[in-house]
Amino acid sequence: MARLHEVFHRALNSSLDNCSTERFSACFTGINSATTRDAHAQIITRLRDNCDKEFEVILEGKDLAHQLASLEELLKTQEAGQQQQQHEHSPEEIVRAQLLPLKQERVDRLKKELKQLEDDNSKVHQAISELKKRHSAALEGFSRKRKILGEAAKESAELGIQEVWGVAGMAKKDGFALQEEPKKPIPKKQKGN
After folding, report:
1. What's residue 9's pLDDT?
2. CA 131/CA 133 separation, integer angstroms
């Protein structure tokens, strides 16, 4: 508590010393210097007394003496605990304790990145599944058409070529264009024979 009084009086003296007699007299130029010196001394004495009284009222009203004593006790306890704690932990443990929050932030950031990658992979997997379904459907359609063509080839072999061209003519008539069999050129007779 004595330390608080000491600090208060130093601050008060510094403030009041800043208001010197010369500076005070400069504000009252029409009054003689002896009068202003006496007025200055009275005002400074009165300010000092009022500040001391107000300070004591504040100390008592806020029970600062008790609170400061409690604070000093807490500080002593903390210092003792820190000294004891320093002896209890190795430098590696202290460094590890300091790094733990940083590593936890990194783990959290990596977890977010992993979640994003998993979401992206899920979307890619869905797209691949959709493409596989389309591919399977296309293969099925191709297989069906191949089977139909195979059956048609088998039937045409059984029917004979004339009947196929007859069917082709009917198909052409119905709006289906089948490629006609290419005509073979007839060899010309040579003159001498």
Report:
1. 87
2. 5
Assign 89 to helix, strand or coil. coil
What pLDDT, on a 0 to 100 scale, did the predictor assign at position 50?
92
- How much is the average pLDDT of 42-64? 86
Predicted local confidence at residue 132, as pLDDT: 92
Does residue 41 contact residue 5 with C-beta atoms inside 8 Å?
Answer: no
Contact 36, 25 (CB under 8 A): yes
**Ranges of H-type helices in the chain:** 2-17, 21-27, 33-61, 64-88, 91-159, 161-173
Nearest to 169 by CA among 181, 186, 158, 157: 181
Contact 43, 79 (CB under 8 A): no
Residue 90: DSSP 8-state: -
- pLDDT confidence of residue 83: 61
Asked if residue 50 lies in contact with residue 56, where contact means CB atoms within 8 angstroms, the answer is no
The pLDDT > 90 percentage for the chain reads 21
Burial of 103-134, coded b for 16+ CB within 10 Å and e otherwise, reads eeeeeeeeeeeeeeeeeeeeeeeeeeeeeeee
Across the range 129-149, mean pLDDT stands at 90
pLDDT value at 36 more than 70: yes
With beta carbons less than 8 A apart as the criterion, state whether 68 and 4 touch.
yes
